[in-house]
Every structure is written in structure tokens, then in C-alpha cells.
């Protein structure tokens, strides 16, 4: 999957790498996460059990918090595999979250609210995609600019005002908190399953890998790289819109400053999960593990009695190791 030979008909056949070598990054991160959970299970079993007076464990809360991040990370994985990046997703999330609150407050049914947020995200993704694919500008420059434009436009329109007095059917989709949390987990699981299958087994998924592996070779094979890149950004926006809705329904009000720092969290999870920043290689299974590992580090250190100021240092070390190992793997290919 990581090679263009898997994506372009007629490409020369090469000896297939072993499963271990092909997914070494994902396996390594998975083992590290399993080790972390094992340490917690033996030293702090309360991490996996509800405390007195609470109806859920710390681990379950982490899983719920992960759901919106995972959905955004799915889109980011596809963008990075195509050899691009989108650092405007935090601003997109804020815009979509406010839109979700305003439409719900206006009396729209939740399916219509979900559609509106995903369309708004798609529209912002289309702006990024058109600028990157149409003009050939670096995606990091384009999305840096749109990150500021989206965020400042929202700040000017809302003046920091929360979206309050939301209808009862908005928070947790009008369900109990427990039921609403399971809905979030179910949506994230379904999206993860669908996109994992699409990337692995469909022509569209192979096209993304081909464009990220070797753009010129993909063009010679009849693929339209610009169109692929455009739709990758549109898809990224749509998934951010869905993530925004899942994030917004957890609170009784919508904060217009939501999403700050999301881009770093999501990109870090994708890179830690084994997706090559140089494009052409990566799996959603690795992204899932990366999201889980980074989401668990903070609470785990707290349970283990490690001072909270070490959390960012540990996160940074994990990201540094992931980036360094990516460079080592590229030189060995």
C-alpha cells in the first residue's frame, strides 16, 4: 500500500515486504501503548474502574474524548498520505461548532444540523483544496493563512460570545449522558471502519497513496493529482465538521474559541501512528493507536503520580522519536 506499485496498474513487481517490516511503526507504537496500559493495570487499577459516586472510569472518559479527535485524525491521515498538511482544522472546528449551535438554536433537527456542519466544513476544505491544487501553493502556507482568516472572521462575528440557551435535544443528542457517549463512540467506530476499508480496498484509496508516493508517476498512470488533492481537502473539511458536532454536543454551550491547538494534537497523533510526513505511507490503524497513546499520556502520568508539567515533555519526546524514526525508515527504503 505504501508503494506506488500497489496503486498503478502495470508497475514493476517487487518482492513484497514482510508484515513486520511493513507495519513496524504501527506495531512499535501499539506495543508501547499496550505496555502503558499494562503498567496502569498493575499499579493503578482504578484507572479502569469507576470511582465512588461516578458512573464511568477514567479510561472510558478518555475514549469518549478521543472520538471527535479520531474523526479529524482520519481526515488528516488521508491529507498527509497525499503529501500535504492542513493546519486550519482548529479554526474550521470552531466555525462548524458555532454553526451547529446556531442552527440547533434556530430549531433545526439534529440530522439537518449535522448536514449543515459537514457542508460548512466541506466548503472550507474546498477553499484550501482549490488554493493548493489550483495554484500549486504549499499546503502549509495556504492552511496557515486560512487558519487565521477563519478564526479571526469568527472572532469578529461572535465577539467571543458563547452560543447559549441551546435546545434540550442538542446536548448528547437529547439522550442521557451515558447513551450520548456511546453514540459518539459508535459514530467514531463506524467512520474508522468505513475509511479503513476505503483506503485499503478501493481505487480512490489507492489513488491517494499513489499521489503521495510519486505525483509524476501517478500522472503518467492516468491519475489526476490536482483533482485528488482537491477532494482530499474537501473530505478533511467534512470530517472536521462531523468532529465539531460530536465535540459540541458534549457541552450545554458552544465556545467560539474551541479548537485551539487541535491541529497540533491531530497532526501529532497521525505522525506518531506511523503515517509518513513525506507522504505515500500510513494506516488508520496506526492513527488510532497514535490518538489513543497521546490522549492517555496525560491522565496516565497523573494517576502514576508524575508532576503534570512533565506531560508536554513526554508528548514532545514521543513526537520527536516518531519523526526521527520516519527519517530513518525513509533512508532505509
Features:
ABC transporter involved in vitamin B12 uptake, BtuC; disordered N terminus
Summarize the structure in short.
The chain has 13 helices and no strands. It has 333 residues and is mostly helical.
Q: Could you describe the 3D structure shown?
A:
The protein has 333 residues and is mostly helical. The chain has one domain (26-38, 55-332): ABC transporter involved in vitamin B12 uptake, BtuC. It is built from 13 helices and no strands. The two termini are 14 Å apart.
By CATH, the topology is ABC transporter involved in vitamin B12 uptake, BtuC
CATH architecture: Orthogonal Bundle
In total, the number of strands is: 0
Evaluate the radius of gyration: 20 Å
Termini Cα gap: 14 Å
> What is the helix content?
55-70%
- What is the percentage of strand-forming residues? under 5%
Work out the count of structural domains. 1
Sequence of secondary-structure elements: HHHHHHHHHHHHH
Arithmetic mean pLDDT: 87
By helix and strand content, what is the structural category?
Answer: mainly alpha
- Largest sheet data: none
What is the general shape?
A: globular
CATH class: Mainly Alpha
The unreliable regions are: 1-12
Secondary structure topology:
Elements: H1 19-22, H2 24-43, H3 58-81, H4 89-105, H5 110-135, H6 139-158, H7 177-201, H8 203-213, H9 215-220, H10 225-248, H11 262-272, H12 284-303, H13 310-332
Helix pairs in contact: 2-12, 3-7, 3-10, 3-11, 3-12, 4-5, 4-6, 4-10, 5-6, 5-10, 7-8, 11-12, 11-13, 12-13
Amino acid at each position: 500500500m505504501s508503494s506506488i506499485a500497489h496503486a498503478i496498474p502495470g508497475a514493476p513487481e517487487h518482492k513484497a515486504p514482510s508484515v513486520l517490516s511493513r507495519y513496524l511503526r504501527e506495531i512499535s507504537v501499539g506495543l508501547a501503548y499496550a505496555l502503558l496500559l499494562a503498567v496502569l493495570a498493575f499499579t493503578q487499577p482504578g484507572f479502569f474502574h469507576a470511582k465512588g459516586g461516578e458512573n464511568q472510569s477514567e479510561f472510558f472518559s478518555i475514549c469518549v474524548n478521543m472520538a471527535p479527535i479520531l474523526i479529524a485524525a482520519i481526515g488528516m491521515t488521508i491529507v498527509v498520505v497525499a503529501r500535504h498538511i492542513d493546519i486550519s482544522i482548529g479554526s474550521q472546528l470552531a466555525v462548524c461548532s458555532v454553526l451547529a449551535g446556531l442552527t440547533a438554536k434556530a430549531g433545526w433537527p439534529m440530522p439537518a444540523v449535522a448536514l449543515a456542519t459537514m457542508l460548512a466544513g466541506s466548503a472550507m476544505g474546498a477553499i484550501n483544496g482549490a488554493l493548493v491544487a489550483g495554484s500549486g501553493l504549499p499546503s502549509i502556507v495556504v492552511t496557515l493563512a486560512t487558519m487565521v482568516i477563519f478564526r479571526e472572521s469568527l472572532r469578529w462575528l461572535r465577539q467571543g460570545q458563547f452560543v447559549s440557551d441551546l435546545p434540550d435535544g442538542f446536548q448528547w443528542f437529547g439522550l442521557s449522558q451515558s447513551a450520548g457517549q456511546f453514540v459518539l463512540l459508535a459514530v467514531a467506530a463506524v467512520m474508522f471502519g468505513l475509511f479503513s476499508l476505503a483506503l485499503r480496498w478501493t481505487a480512490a484509496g489507492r489513488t491517494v497513496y499513489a499521489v503521495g508516493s510519486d505525483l509524476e508517476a501517478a500522472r503518467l498512470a492516468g491519475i489526476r493529482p490536482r483533482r485528488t488533492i482537491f477532494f482530499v481537502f474537501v473530505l478533511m473539511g467534512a470530517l472536521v465538521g462531523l468532529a465539531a458536532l460530536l465535540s459540541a454536543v458534549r457541552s450545554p454551550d458552544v465556545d467560539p474559541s474551541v479548537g485551539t491547538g487541535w491541529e497540533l494534537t491531530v497532526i501529532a497523533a497521525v505522525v506518531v501512528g506511523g503515517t509518513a510526513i513525506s507522504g505515500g505511507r500510513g494506516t488508520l490503524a496506526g492513527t488510532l493507536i497514535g490518538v489513543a497513546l497521546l490522549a492517555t499520556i496525560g491522565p496516565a502520568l497523573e494517576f502514576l503520580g508524575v508532576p503534570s508539567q512533565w506531560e508536554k515533555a513526554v508528548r514532545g519526546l514521543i513526537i520527536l522519536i516518531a519523526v526521527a524514526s520516519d527519517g530513518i525508515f525513509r533512508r532505509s527504503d
